[in-house]
Amino acid sequence: MSHLQLAVLLGMTVALGPLALDAYLPAFPSIAEGLNISHSNVGLTLSAYVTTLGLAQLVGGPLSDRYGRKPILFAGLLFFASGAVMVSLADTLSDMVVWRIAQGIGGAFCAVSVPAIVRDEVSGQDAARLFGLIGLIMFIAPAAAPSLGALMLMLGEWQWIFLMLAGYAVLLILALNVMLFPRLQPRPPQTTPVKTLVTNYLLVLRHKTTMRFVGIQVLCFSTMLLFITHSSFIYQEWFGLSNNAFAILFAANIAFMAALNLINRPLLSRFSSESLVRAQVIAQCLALVALVTTVQLQGPLWVVAGCIIIAIGCQGGIVPNNMANAMEFFPHLGGTAAALLGASQFTIAGAISALSSLSGDQTLLSITTAMLACSIGAVLLALGAPRAVALAKKSGM
Description:
This protein is an all-alpha fold and 397 residues long.
């Protein structure tokens, strides 16, 4: 099938994660009031989902390599839909956290399948382009998610948001079964022992170049997740914006992501993907330096929002290039490599997000400083990335 058709279907699938993260952000105040908990405690439901989304990929990746992409992906969608329905029925924080964890398991099996399918079909710069096209399509989800959440709140209660997510997962099962898997090239599942699939993680962990890109992905995603976790606090509590204003500003982040993603595609014809990663990670860090400086000087909302939009928008170029680089050296272990990348990204970022939610009194300065700290770490790893790739390819790794 064509790259565009493949990108549309895989983009719709990977969009499930951003929808589950962002759609209920405008409902944080309603959930806090309905469950009689604090605003920051609602953030624990997001952290629980993200952390599980990472850890469960360690199981889903090897299973996808062994038993095939379709059964694992469909099992994940069914589990996700069931978890979403149960979240809508939760009446305590603990119940909501438990079912968000269940939802995260299903989301993990979906998340790990998409990059594995891409690696089955293409590699190198072509993979970077396809990841970029998938990212461009899936940007619709996080851009629209807060607005969809706000719409659900206008029509009913916050529970409607999770029923919408369940319906979307069921729709994906139908679409993928009819339009995607019958048109993919057959890929026979592995027949190696299960214990070998576990030890395959050691092959990825020992690959220094791949692990460098995993580290970049973890730290850049941590920067973004810190913002997502506290975005309602920043805009709705700190600056006192309405649900609609919050949704507009949140969508602006995604719009800038999409713009950088579009710019990134022609740049791949002139520059290597690893060089682009380095430039985009540095640009993100500079935007966060400006953000922290603005907050310290008590700058206006429009400057704070502008810095955030640029910093978060840089993910539009970082993610596709970095994923292609991280997956490049494992053509036959796509599921395992994708699982380690996703597990590291979501688990560590989720832990950082949870710690920030439990750290006590939140301030705009403490949140933005934490974002900058993660970005500085990514810059340190990215500075050596092009040389690391060149050495790895030269040595035949």
